[in-house]
Write a structure and sequence with these properties.
Layout: H1 7-65, H2 69-82, H3 87-102, H4 106-119, H5 123-139, H6 143-152, H7 159-172, H8 176-189, H9 196-212
């Protein structure tokens, strides 16, 4: 705009600029307002969903603490259906699996753990679910299935636990040499000072003693 133009000329230039660009300005303002509103709505929605999921998980925890497995199962199903992407659904599945094992319902435990494997976002949750699933299979004397999961495991975080489980499986399969190797590997990968270290050493010593005997 010419700073030396008259007021009338300036006014006409402004009107012309608005005629040429007004629509774009309005669209940009509306888009910005919608983006701000949409962002706030999404944050509020996520916060509300997280709160609802938290309440549902509290229902599961209270029901389990009171020995009410039916109510706990219903609350868990609600989490799985309405809040499947929430970490609370994962926590609920783990709790329900533990409760099922305690009640000698290993089939239900496997169902809950398989749900975690299929739905968890974090690899640590998936790996823990696979480990516990293998442990449940071991309890059911499904040694080959449990060993298959153990052989596929690639988690460094649970490597010692996987090796220990393999040792336990080999003991049940009367394979002391493989069991000894597995327990040695479990001891090699465990962190020094962990309580399991002594248990693993006892298992290894028992294998060596029985093999020598």
């Amino acid at each position: 705009m010419d700073i030396y133009a008259s007021d009338d000329e300036k006014g006409e230039e402004i009107k012309q600029w608005w005629r040429d660009n007004g629509r774009s300005v309005i669209i940009a303002c509306v888009a910005t307002a919608l983006a701000v509103f949409g962002g706030r709505y999404w944050v509020d929605y996520k916060s509300t969903q997280a709160l609802k999921a938290s309440h549902a998980y509290q229902q599961v925890s209270r029901a389990l603490a009171n020995g009410d497995s039916i109510t706990a199962a219903a609350a868990s199903d609600n989490l799985f259906t309405d809040f499947s992407t929430s970490p609370y659904s994962i926590f609920s599945a783990f709790d329900m699996a533990s409760n099922a094992v305690k009640n000698n319902d290993n089939a239900a435990a496997q169902t809950y753990l398989n749900w975690v494997v299929s739905n968890a976002d974090l690899s640590a949750h998936k790996e823990l679910a696979q480990l516990r699933l293998a442990q449940v299979l071991f309890l059911d004397s499904k040694f080959d299935e449990a060993l298959l999961l153990a052989d596929k495991a690639s988690s460094d975080a649970f490597s010692s636990l996987w090796s220990e489980l393999k040792g336990d499986i080999y003991i049940e399969q009367a394979k002391p040499d493989q069991a000894r190797t597995a327990y040695q590997q479990a001891l090699f990968t465990i962190k020094q000072g962990e309580p399991r270290q002594q248990i693993l050493q006892i298992k290894l010593d028992d294998v060596v003693a029985s093999n020598n005997g």
